[in-house]
UniProtKB/TrEMBL annotation, chain A:
Keyword Secreted: no
Keywords, comma-separated and alphabetical: Cell inner membrane, Cell membrane, Cytochrome c-type biogenesis, Membrane, Transmembrane, Transmembrane helix, Transport
Lineage: Bacteria, Pseudomonadati, Pseudomonadota, Gammaproteobacteria, Lysobacterales
Protein name listed in UniProt: Heme exporter protein C
Ranges for domain Cytochrome c assembly protein: 30-188
Family: Belongs to the CcmC/CycZ/HelC family.
Keyword Protein transport applies: no
Membrane topology: Multi-pass membrane protein
Organism listed in the record: Dyella lutea
Pfam families found in the cross-reference section: Cytochrom_C_asm (PF01578)
Annotated compartments: Cell inner membrane; Membrane
From TrEMBL, chain B:
Coiled-coil parts of chain: none
InterPro entries in alphabetical order: AAA+_ATPase, ABC_transporter-like_ATP-bd, ABC_transporter-like_CS, ABC_transptr_haem_export_CcmA, P-loop_NTPase
Matching SMART domains: AAA
Pfam families reported for this sequence: ABC_tran (PF00005)
Residue spans crossing the bilayer: none
Gene3D superfamilies associated with the record: P-loop containing nucleotide triphosphate hydrolases (3.40.50.300)
Keywords annotated in UniProt: ATP-binding, Cytochrome c-type biogenesis, Membrane, Nucleotide-binding, Translocase, Transport
Domain ABC transporter: 9-209
Protein name: Cytochrome c biogenesis heme-transporting ATPase CcmA
Top-level lineage group: Bacteria
Automatic annotation (TrEMBL), chain C:
NCBIfam families: ccmB (TIGR01190)
Pfam families reported for this sequence: CcmB (PF03379)
Protein's membrane topology: Multi-pass membrane protein
Family note: Belongs to the CcmB/CycW/HelB family.
Biological role stated in the UniProt entry: Required for the export of heme to the periplasm for the biogenesis of c-type cytochromes.
UniProt keywords, alphabetically: Cell inner membrane, Cell membrane, Cytochrome c-type biogenesis, Membrane, Transmembrane, Transmembrane helix, Transport
Protein's cellular compartments: Cell inner membrane
Membrane-spanning intervals of the chain: 28-46, 52-73, 104-123, 135-159, 166-190, 196-222
Organism: Dyella lutea
Protein name as annotated: Heme exporter protein B
Automatic annotation (TrEMBL), chain D:
Taxonomic lineage of the native organism: Bacteria, Pseudomonadati, Pseudomonadota, Gammaproteobacteria, Lysobacterales
Annotated InterPro entries: Haem_export_protD_CcmD, Heme_exporter_D
Domain of life: Bacteria
Keyword Transmembrane recorded: yes
Principal subcellular localization: membrane
Organism the protein comes from: Dyella lutea
Membrane topology designation: Single-pass membrane protein
Job of this protein: Required for the export of heme to the periplasm for the biogenesis of c-type cytochromes.
Database matches in PANTHER family: HEME EXPORTER PROTEIN D (PTHR37531:SF1)
Keywords: Cell inner membrane, Cell membrane, Cytochrome c-type biogenesis, Membrane, Transmembrane, Transmembrane helix, Transport
Similarity comment: Belongs to the CcmD/CycX/HelD family.
Any Pfam family matching the protein: CcmD
Localization per Swiss-Prot or TrEMBL: Cell inner membrane
Transmembrane regions listed in the UniProt entry: 12-34
Protein's UniProt name: Heme exporter protein D
Length: 252, 209, 228, 64
């Protein structure tokens, strides 16, 4: 292992240490996510005034926009840990990358459905080939490809490495897709109405949005912790520390 | 043979893991030019895995490999190692001659050796232009063995070379191995059958299940 | 003893794959037949109205060719894995990326080239104006190698899995979206009498990049997928 | 309250959006819990089998 990686990080990379660390972090992150989420919902649904153009309909953005951000953010996290997993062959990085994918897919799915709900009112149809929605759809396919490839292998670690490689190809692809879809949209003069226009945002709308963004980040850390813990138990089932946990839970 | 010549291939504390379960090892051995090693062990003791690790198809789990005394680097030794596994690497739609031409194109050929001669040596004269898929299992094996004669490699890694062969075929493998070892080559052979080898007592590598 | 020179090794791989394809020429005809069938279905589904067919002709031909290529993609390394030739290729003392590049070239020559050859026929069945034909051929000539190269990387990734046709389509879709957009964009522009050079240039640039990077990625993917 | 629930006439769009958000995330949070239970159950089964085998070995050893 390279010497520039601090010792504590190296230690955290060992499965039993990370398992305990994630176990301690998990409830705090969940509590934080729930509290911040409730505050954001109150701010967004009750305190923020109706938009003078769109009425109350715009309130969908308080879940739509943070989910869209998370979809991209999680793909970034997945790609970075995929890179670490491939270069340094660290098991924990593989697990983090592979367990991030379903969470990212969930957020992308939320983005698509809420975007479509908003679209019904704006465009009068459930689906329109708007550049952003199309990009989100492609992002969902990228996630599904990574998840599908991971599960196609008999050997979990081999699957993780192959899927990590696919995630890296995908991260190069994301900006290309975004660029090409935008070009395609201008070519065919499609709808260019944006759900998240900066001009119409007032302070009372922005703070619930930002709070919700932090809440979703906390939720992601929480969900990732639970997933990585479950995955580590399965992957390391031959090791002593896992046996102790299994034995401890029977005693209770 | 002097002590100063480093072993062709050496392994130190070599082991391999699959899903954190040890498949074999730690293994320790040295293979000198002109030496034959038999890898012995029961089914599932990791013989095939060892050969695949040595060939470079699998990553070394733990421990180190040395090639002519230096830490092994694949780009240095790839030309000198030939691997013959369970899958023979022959295209069924091509003739033995065409298959050997491809092997020679990828690996190079020994001086004065051509596909026709190699096929004659393994007893496939008359079958040079028959598609491989029409050959019997033993004949396919012989066609694969012809590759060993064709390719200029110092180390042969043979996984179960005796499988599917009749008495004459087994004698052929032994003859090929003796010739290779006499010419200063080395070979690592897995087999769960008895091997009667006339060119001196082979080194034995024991795998534990 | 003599080492095999690089040129001879490339020629050996290319010749082998072309010979194999020739021995099974029936398989070469399959994607072509498939493209023909799909193209025939469009008028039945949409009605034989010339103006409508003309409008969709470019895109329909492009998507048809893409699907036909996808059909053949799965088999790119399949038989080589089954009989162990791929192991021998990986172990050969030659740059793996270059050898795989030759395999991809052979695959393109045997699956995409026949499709390009019959593309004008498919296009005229759908009433594409003759003036747009050269642009379509140019777009196909740039788009199909892209698909072969990208597809090869993904096929290499699935090399360690059981049959994976649907998964391959799922993985390829995000990668081929930009290719389809630019190729169809060029066609649409040409059909409307607008300048079509820009999307073709983008495709060309992407192809140049893919020609260099995809074989390397393919080699890396194959090593990951076989390492078990 | 009714006015709040009506969302200015857009209740049909706003509330499903929030419901989807909560339902999807809830399902996402629940999945690892169930998975963890399954993994531990399988593991306990394996440990029990191993213990039983060792017990048998010990018994035959004392018998002999």
């Amino acid at each position: 292992m390279s010497s520039w990686i601090p010792l504590w990080l190296h230690k955290l990379g060992s499965p039993p240490t990370f398992y305990r660390f994630a176990g301690k972090l998990r409830p705090w992150m969940l509590a934080l996510a729930i509290v911040l989420g409730l505050v954001a919902l109150y701010g967004g649904l009750v305190l923020a005034p109706p938009d003078y153009q769109q009425g109350d309909d715009y309130r969908i953005i308080f879940v739509h926009v943070p989910s869209a951000w998370m979809g991209l953010f999680i793909y970034g996290v997945m790609a970075v840990s995929a890179f670490i997993a491939l270069v340094w062959r660290i098991k924990l990085a593989e697990v983090v990358a592979m367990e991030s994918a379903p969470i990212g897919a969930a957020f992308t799915l939320i983005t698509l459905i809420t975007g479509s709900l908003w679209g019904v009112r704006m465009w009068g149809t459930w689906w329109t080939w708007d550049a952003r929605l199309t990009s989100e759809l492609v992002l969902l396919f990228l996630y599904l490809g990574v998840i599908g490839l991971y599960h196609a292998f008999e050997d979990r670690r081999q699957g993780a490495r192959a899927a990590a490689f696919l995630a890296l190809i995908g991260i190069i692809n994301v900006p290309i897709v975004h660029f090409s879809v935008n070009w395609w949209n201008t070519l065919h003069q499609g709808a260019t109405i944006r759900l998240f226009g900066p001009s119409t945002m007032s302070g009372s709308m922005i703070w619930p949005l930002l709070t919700m963004m932090v809440a979703t980040k906390c939720y992601y850390v929480f969900s990732l912790c639970s997933r990585v813990r479950a995955d580590l138990l399965a992957l390391e089932s031959g090791k002593d520390w896992v046996r102790q946990i299994a034995a401890g839970e029977t005693a209770r | 043979m002097t002590v100063a010549t480093p072993p062709l291939l050496a392994a130190s504390a070599l082991s391999f893991y699959r899903q954190d379960e040890p498949v074999f090892g730690p293994l320790q051995f040295e293979l000198h030019p002109g030496q034959l090693a038999l890898v012995e062990g029961d089914n599932g003791s990791g013989k095939t895995t060892l050969l695949r690790v040595l060939a470079g198809l699998l990553h070394v789990g733990e421990g180190e490999l040395f090639w002519r005394g230096e830490p092994l680097r694949r780009d240095h030794c790839a030309a000198e190692i030939v691997f013959l596994g369970h899958q023979l690497g022959l295209k069924g739609d091509l003739s033995p001659r065409e298959n050997l031409h491809i092997a020679a194109g990828l690996h190079g050929a020994r001086d004065g050796m051509d596909p026709a001669r190699a096929l004659l040596d393994v007893g496939l004269a008359g079958y040079e232009d028959e598609p491989v898929r029409r050959l019997s299992a033993g004949q396919k094996k012989r066609a694969a063995l012809a590759r060993l004669l064709m390719i200029p490699a110092a180390l042969w890694l043979l996984d179960e070379p005796y499988a599917n062969l009749d008495r004459h075929g087994i004698a052929l493998v032994n003859r090929l191995l003796e010739g290779h070892v006499a010419a200063g080559g080395a070979a690592l052979v897995t087999s769960h059958g008895a091997v009667s080898f006339h060119g001196g007592e082979p080194q034995r590598i024991r795998m534990h299940a | 003893m003599n080492q095999a020179p690089l040129g001879r090794a490339c020629a050996a791989v290319l010749r082998r794959d072309l010979t194999l394809a020739w021995r099974r020429r029936g398989d070469i005809a399959m994607p072509v037949l498939y493209a023909l069938i799909v193209t025939t279905l469009f008028p039945f589904a949409l009605g034989p109205e010339n103006a409508l067919l003309q409008r969709i002709a470019g895109g329909a031909v492009l998507v048809t060719v893409l699907l036909a290529m996808l059909l053949a993609l799965d088999g790119m390394f399949r038989s080589d894995i089954e009989d162990g030739s791929l192991e021998q290729l990986v172990l050969a003392p030659q740059p793996l990326a270059l050898m795989l590049g030759m395999k991809i070239l052979a695959h393109w020559l045997t699956t995409a080239l026949p499709l390009i050859v019959i593309a004008p026929m498919l296009a005229s069945m759908l009433q594409l104006p003759a003036a747009v034909m050269p642009v379509m051929l140019l777009a196909l000539a740039l788009a199909t190698p892209m698909l072969s190269l990208l597809g090869a990387v993904l096929v290499a990734l699935t090399a360690g899995t059981r049959r994976s046709g649907m998964l391959l389509a799922l993985m390829l879709l995000p990668l081929c979206v930009p290719v389809v957009i630019f190729a169809a964009g060029a066609l649409a522009a040409a059909q409307q009498g607008l300048p079509w050079i820009a999307p073709i240039a983008w495709l060309g640039a992407a192809l140049a990049l893919a020609l260099v990077l995809a074989p390397l990625a393919c080699a890396a993917a194959l090593r990951i997928a076989l390492d078990a | 309250m009714t006015q709040f629930l009506a969302m200015g006439g857009y209740a049909v769009y706003v509330w499903p959006a929030y419901a989807i958000f909560l339902v999807v995330l809830l399902a996402d949070a629940l999945a690892p819990v169930l998975r963890r239970r399954r993994v531990l159950r399988e593991l306990r089964g394996r440990l029990a089998r191993q213990a039983a085998r060792q017990q048998r070995h010990a018994d035959t050893a004392t018998d002999a």
